[in-house]
C-alpha cells in the first residue's frame, strides 16, 4: 500500500524542523512540492534546502507540480463555493501525483508550511482523494511549529492571559467585528491590515512578517502608535519581495470593551 507523510516543516526557520520531521523525511522516497506561483518560489526553494540539508544526495526524488490558483475575486456567499472548487481542483492534482508518481510500496510526503492543522487544506484534500476511491493510500501527520507559536516566541509573550481564552481567526473574519468573549486574538491570512479598524481602541499589537527567515520584521506596542509603522514597513517589504506573510496578536485591555 502506498504511504504518505504530511510533514509540518515550521514557519520559515529551517531550525524549526523537528527530529520527528527529519525522521519522516529520511523515510520518504518521493517528495511532492507544490508551487503556488512565481512569488512563492522562495518557499519552494526553502523546502528544497531542507531536503538538501538532511538527506543524502540521490536518496530521494522530488516531483514539482503547480498548485491550482483560487479565484480570489469571490466574496460573500461565492467565497465558500470558490474555496470548494479550488479544493477539488487540488484533489485532482494530488490524486494524479500519488497514483502516477508513487510506486505501490513507496512512501511519499507533502511538506506543509507551519503545522498541518492550522489554516492548511492538505489533510482535507487527501481525504477528498481517498473518498473518490481512485487511489488507495495510508497517511500520517507530523506536527510542525506554526507561525502562531513562532510569533509568540519571537515577541517573548504568551498567547493567553491567565485562565483566559484566545481566538485564532482570519483578517476576513476580523473585518466583521472584534470577536465576542475574547480579548486575545491571533490574526492570520490578512491581506488588508484589518487591525487598522481597531486603532482607536486600547489594544496592543504583536506583529511579525516573514517570521524565522532572514527578512523577519517584528513590531509591538499600542495599536494606535504601531499601526502606521506596520503599514509603512509592510508596504515597503511587499514591494521589495513581491509577497508577504504576516501574523499578529491583538491584546485588548478588558477594561475597555
Ligand atoms: C495558509 S496559512 C498557513 C499557516 C501554517 N499552516 C501555520 O501553521 O503557520 C498562511 C498564513 O500563515 C501565516 N504565516 C505563515 N508563515 C508565516 C511567517 N513566517 N511569518 C508570519 N506569518 C506567517 C500568515 O498569516 C499567512 O497568511
Automatic annotation (TrEMBL):
<keyword id="KW-0169">Cobalamin biosynthesis</keyword>
<keyword id="KW-0949">S-adenosyl-L-methionine</keyword>
<dbReference type="GO" id="GO:0043819">
    <property type="term" value="F:precorrin-6A synthase (deacetylating) activity"/>
</dbReference>
<keyword id="KW-0489">Methyltransferase</keyword>
<dbReference type="GO" id="GO:0032259">
    <property type="term" value="P:methylation"/>
</dbReference>
<dbReference type="InterPro" id="IPR012797">
    <property type="entry name" value="CobF"/>
</dbReference>
<dbReference type="InterPro" id="IPR014777">
    <property type="entry name" value="4pyrrole_Mease_sub1"/>
</dbReference>
<protein>
    <submittedName>
        <fullName>Precorrin-6A synthase (Deacetylating)</fullName>
        <ecNumber>2.1.1.152</ecNumber>
    </submittedName>
</protein>
<dbReference type="InterPro" id="IPR035996">
    <property type="entry name" value="4pyrrol_Methylase_sf"/>
</dbReference>
<dbReference type="Pfam" id="PF00590">
    <property type="entry name" value="TP_methylase"/>
</dbReference>
<comment type="pathway">
    <text>Cofactor biosynthesis; adenosylcobalamin biosynthesis.</text>
</comment>
<keyword id="KW-0808">Transferase</keyword>
<dbReference type="InterPro" id="IPR000878">
    <property type="entry name" value="4pyrrol_Mease"/>
</dbReference>
<feature type="domain" description="Tetrapyrrole methylase">
    <location>
        <begin position="3"/>
        <end position="226"/>
    </location>
</feature>
<dbReference type="InterPro" id="IPR014776">
    <property type="entry name" value="4pyrrole_Mease_sub2"/>
</dbReference>
Amino acid at each position: 500500500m502506498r504511504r504518505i507523510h504530511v510533514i509540518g516543516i515550521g514557519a520559515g526557520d529551517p531550525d524549526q524542523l523537528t527530529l520527528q520531521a527529519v525522521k519522516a523525511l529520511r523515510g520518504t522516497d518521493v517528495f511532492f512540492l507544490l508551487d503556488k506561483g512565481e512569488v512563492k518560489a522562495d518557499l519552494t526553494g526553502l523546502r528544497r534546502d531542507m531536503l538538501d540539508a538532511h538527506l543524502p544526495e540521490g536518496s530521494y526524488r522530488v516531483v514539482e507540480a503547480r498548485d491550482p490558483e483560487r479565484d480570489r475575486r469571490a466574496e460573500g456567499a461565492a467565497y465558500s463555493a470558490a474555496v470548494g472548487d479550488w479544493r477539488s481542483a487540488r484533489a485532482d492534482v494530488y490524486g494524479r501525483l500519488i497514483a502516477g508518481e508513487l510506486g505501490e510500496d513507496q512512501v511519499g510526503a507533502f511538506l506543509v508550511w507551519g503545522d498541518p492543522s492550522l489554516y492548511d487544506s492538505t489533510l482535507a484534500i487527501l481525504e477528498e482523494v481517498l473518498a473518490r476511491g481512485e487511489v488507495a493510500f495510508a497517511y500520517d501527520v507530523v506536527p510542525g511549529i506554526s507561525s502562531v507559536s513562532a510569533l509568540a516566541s519571537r515577541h517573548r509573550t504568551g498567547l493567553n492571559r491567565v485562565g483566559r481564552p484566545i481566538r485564532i481567526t482570519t483578517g476576513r473574519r476580523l473585518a466583521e467585528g472584534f470577536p465576542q468573549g475574547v480579548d486575545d486574538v491571533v490574526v492570520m491570512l490578512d491581506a488588508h491590515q484589518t487591525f487598522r479598524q481597531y486603532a482607536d481602541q486600547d489594544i496592543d499589537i504583536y506583529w511579525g512578517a516573514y517570521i524565522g527567515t532572514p527578512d523577519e520584521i517584528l513590531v509591538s506596542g499600542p495599536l494606535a502608535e504601531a499601526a502606521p509603522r506596520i503599514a509603512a514597513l509592510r508596504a515597503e517589504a511587499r514591494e521589495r519581495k513581491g509577497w508577504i506573510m504576516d501574523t499578529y496578536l491583538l491584546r485588548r485591555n478588558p477594561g475597555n470593551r
